[in-house]
Write a structure and sequence with these properties.
- There is one protein chain.
- By secondary structure, this protein is mainly β.
- The protein contains four helices and 21 strands.
- The protein has helices at 16-25, 29-37, 45-52, 56-68; strands at 3-5, 8-12, 43-44, 72-79, 82-89, 93-97, 107-113, 120-125, 129-131, 136-137, 156-159, 161-168, 176-188, 200-206, 209-216, 241-248, 252-254, 257-260, 275-281, 291-294, 305-313.
- A hairpin with a 2-residue loop joins β1 and β2 (8-12).
- The longest helix has 13 residues, at 56-68.
- The protein is globular and about 55 Å long.
- It starts with a strand and ends in a 9-residue tail after the last strand.
Length: 322
């Protein structure tokens, strides 16, 4: 069964309609260029037309085909001369299963954690703070606020250096043969107000093993985030980049690029009662440019931190086993 969840699409040849639709949408060079342009930020049809140097009519048709395929999202927003269509990417990675489902069936377990649902906040350095959907949470630039009860309502958090640990429960770990593990979240660098360029080396680790480092190019601003509340200042950070980290039996990956040699076997998933995911910026990094981490009602993407596991049930087990 094809599945579009978060920023990932699982497709199968046994259900060809979605596969054909997406393959057709990606078959034209101009539509691939649109997907590439939207990897950096949301853009209007007019902006895409200018950036790609193609006619507006061609751009509008290509946007419609990509939207119908479920690859991008469009939203009408007020502009200086009427409404404009703002486009953003929905899908960053696609997996296509060519083997029959009964021969290569992988089930998926997905869990979403609020950005304020961390269990540990270590080494937090200012600038730092928390914001909810309606107002700030606690005092700005005081690391102590990261343990306020109100942190669970956070929709945006930021710090210059430090790390947060999120603990995900998985009740049937001993019954699973895990094929891959994936972590997805929206983030960018942290600068005063917002700034481009402003590099920051953001790392992700699982059970104490670092999967790799992503260098965020900037602290994103200049336009209001698609989901960012109206009370939030236009002079502050507005949105981030949705990044997907994956580890399997061969290594660790950021989107499609291999970034490390850590494998599932290195994570010792069965030895702990939870999966510990750490996100942060090391003070020893080359670019200590902080992090903004976005919730489902802040930024451009309606999600918090998503952990997904692809698995088979062990022989003799089923999904109801305890």
């Amino acid at each position: 069964m094809e599945e579009l969840e978060g920023k990932h699409a699982d497709l199968t040849i046994e259900r060809p309609d979605s596969l054909r639709r997406i393959a057709h949408a990606l078959s034209a060079p101009v539509r691939l260029q649109i997907m590439q342009a939207l990897s950096k930020r949301s853009m209007s049809v007019g902006e895409l037309s200018q950036v790609l140097d193609v006619p507006m009519s061609t751009t509008a048709l290509s946007v419609r085909i990509l939207e119908e395929a479920g690859l991008i999202h469009t939203e009408a927003q007020p502009g200086t001369r009427g409404a404009v269509k703002l486009c953003s990417r929905k899908i960053d990675t696609i997996a296509i299963r060519l083997a029959p489902e009964e021969e290569n069936h992988v089930s998926t377990l997905s869990s979403q954690m609020p950005i304020g649902g961390y269990s540990l906040a270590e080494g937090i350095k200012p600038t730092c703070g928390l914001a909810g959907e309606h107002t700030y949470i606690g005092e700005m630039d005081n690391p102590c606020i990261f343990y306020l009860p109100g942190r669970f309502d956070a929709q945006l958090l930021w710090f210059r250096a430090g790390e947060l640990e999120y603990r995900f429960a998985c009740e049937q770990m001993d019954a699973m043969e895990i094929e891959w593990l994936e972590i997805s979240f929206e983030a960018c660098s942290e600068a005063p107000m917002y700034r481009d360029p402003w590099k920051s080396d953001i790392f992700v680790s699982v059970n104490g093993r670092q999967l790799g480092v992503w260098t965020s190019p900037c602290d994103c601003g200049g336009r209001h985030g698609r989901l960012t509340p109206e009370w939030w200042s236009d002079l502050s950070t507005q949105y981030g980049f949705l990044k997907t980290w994956r580890v399997n039996g061969e290594g660790s990956y950021l989107e499609d690029a291999r970034i490390g040699d850590v494998t599932l076997a290195d994570l010792s998933l069965e030895d702990m009662p939870y999966i510990a995911v750490r996100i942060g910026v090391s003070q020893q990094a080359q670019h200590v440019g902080g992090i903004n981490l976005f919730g489902e009602r802040f930024g451009d993407h309606p999600q918090a931190i998503i952990l997904r596991i692809g698995y088979h049930m062990r022989e003799g087990m089923d999904d109801d086993s305890k």
